[in-house]
Design a protein that fits this description.
The protein is of the alpha/beta class and 319 residues long. It has helices spanning 3-8, 16-20, 86-97, 109-119, 136-150, 175-203, 214-218, 224-243, 262-265, 269-277, 287-297, and strands spanning 43-45, 50-53, 77-81, 101-106, 126-130, 155-158, 206-211, 249-256, 309-312. It has one domain (3-11, 44-312): Rossmann fold. The chain has a nine-stranded mixed sheet with strand order 1-2-5-4-3-6-7-8-9, with helices on both faces. α3 (86-97) links the parallel β3 (77-81) and β4. The radius of gyration is 19 Å and the shape is globular. The N and C termini lie far apart (44 Å). The structure holds nicotinamide-adenine-dinucleotide (NAD).
Length: 319
């Protein structure tokens, strides 16, 4: 279903202040006019970017599904880049089920619409923003739109990522492909963090969780660009952790081993076997297992750990 189609279902919007001053009763707010002057139920079409509030349950969680067992993120807003599918979507589901309002920033509009449908009713608020994370102005606009709707950004999970071409030795690596991987996996991660940090600094609170990879620690042969980019993520995380250590903002990373997502399905089977054979548990990870580790790193409970990279690798721990 399209974003507009989802919006037509008439799911009420969540006022930004409801989240800031919890607990409050959800009062549906009037839909904003779309750029073409027509009224739409929570879907806004801007100049270059379209975004919409796709679904919510009543504030306080009364109408949450049975998935709501904890409320670690009640009153908080979590931004997830690459949140439209795979690991990012799994993280969104987990944080939403624990009370976070969600802002998904993702380049794939179709996947965003499907994610909106899947998550509707599973989080107290949901904003889906088509955004190419490699484009600085789009990330900054997405941050402004998220703040405008929700008034805060407590958690940032940077999950957008690509592998680039794999199963190739270094002398065969296409420099353009290498640059493309670094651009999304590293530069876009930095841009998203840069766009969100001012709001976190104003709030004296923030949890940044970067999705790295065990390949960044161990180095996967045949994956030069990807492994290099994920090693950079681990370095970036250490720097940011130290720079903001006294501000209430933490920055940690997660290093998963293989998880069967669309990204992995697109890899040559020999490359997947190479990676899976290295896992001592002799199995691939589940999205929910990664999301569980991220949920801890994104929570208030994770208050004395920063600049660290958690493993979620079935024992493929190297340091
Ligand atoms: N699946 C694994 O085995 C595995 C292991 C370790 C780390 N990771 C990391 O986890 C993260 C998620 O991977 P996944 O397996 O869920 O992949 P995926 O391909 O299923 O999801 C990636 C998401 O990123 C989005 N994206 C791609 N380019 C973008 C851009 N320019 N701007 C915004 N969004 C963009 C995609 O639309 C997609 O929704 C990645 O950073 C990946 O490197 C995955």
């Amino acid at each position: 279903m399209s974003l507009r189609g989802l919006a037509r279902k008439g799911i009420p919007n969540l006022p930004a202040r409801t989240l800031a001053g919890l607990p409050a009763k959800a009062t549906p707010i009037a839909p904003r006019p779309a750029s073409d002057g027509s009224r739409s139920a929570g879907l806004f079409l801007g100049a270059g970017i379209c975004y919409g509030l796709l679904g919510q349950s009543a504030a306080g969680g009364e109408t949450h599904t049975k998935e709501t067992r904890m409320s670690r993120f009640k009153g908080q807003v979590a931004v997830i880049t690459g949140g439209a599918q795979g690991i990012g979507l799994g993280i969104a589901r987990r944080l939403g089920s624990e009370g976070a309002a969600l802002a998904l920033w993702d380049v794939n509009r179709q996947a965003l619409a499907a994610a909106g449908a899947a998550l509707a009713g599973h989080a107290p608020g949901l904003l889906a923003i088509p955004c190419d994370a490699t484009r600085r102005e789009q990330g900054e606009k997405a941050a402004a739109q998220t703040l405008e709707k929700f008034g805060r950004m407590d958690v940032l999970v940077t999950a957008a990522g690509i592998t680039g071409k794999t199963n190739v030795k270094t002398h065969e690596v296409d420099p353009d492909d290498f640059a493309r991987v670094m651009d999304l996996n590293v530069t876009a991660m930095f841009l998203a963090i840069r766009a969100v940090l001012p709001a976190m600094l104003r709030a004296n609170y923030g949890r940044i969780v970067n999705i790295a990879s065990i390949s960044g620690k161990d180095g996967n042969a045949g994956m030069l660009a990807y492994s290099t980019s994920k090693a950079a993520v681990i370095g970036l995380t250490k720097v940011i952790g130290k720079e903001y250590a006294e501000t209430g903002i933490t920055c940690n990373a997660i290093a998963p081993a293989v998880v069967r997502t669309a990204m992995v399905a697109a890899l040559p089977e020999t490359q997947v076997k190479y990676m899976t054979d290295k896992i001592p548990m002799k199995r691939t990870g589940e999205i929910e297992e990664i999301a569980a580790v991220v949920a801890f790193a994104a929570s208030r409970e994770c208050s004395f750990t920063t600049g660290f990279t958690f493993d979620a690798s079935g024992g493929r721990t190297v340091y």
